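Team,

Forwarding the record for the chain on the shared tracking sheet. I've put the sequence and predicted structure together so nobody has to dig through attachments.
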Amino acid sequence: MIKGKPPRLDFVYTSSPIYFLTCCTLYRKGLLANEVVHEKFRRYCGDAAKFDVAVGRYVLMPDHLHLFVSAGAEFNLGMWVRGLKRAMISASRTWQPGFFDHLLRSDESYSQKWDYVRENPVRAGLVSKCEDWPFQGEIVATDH
């Protein structure tokens, strides 16, 4: 556990919770927004379905990523994120320790978070329209 950070919930009262996650690179280095890392991300998240894990929408920014993930009751979020980070960039000291997660409470919350996240490349001045950002997508389509 990271000092000063509250502990994670051990048990969530829903069969398939949806988490909104943010992971950052160490010192916010711009390492993520490229085709190689994007393909590694897509491969790891695509393979996750074999383990009852569904990654929905995501955006890879140069120095952080946002994604939505859902899984069954036995899902260990911390362990899964460690695997994701290793799969994307395995070099030591690449990632900021830990990650931010938020358990979504409704479909409205998913839509609101996605509307905000997909505009990140525009706010950062990387593209003029969010549709033009090449490092985003959806692994498992949802009704959200």
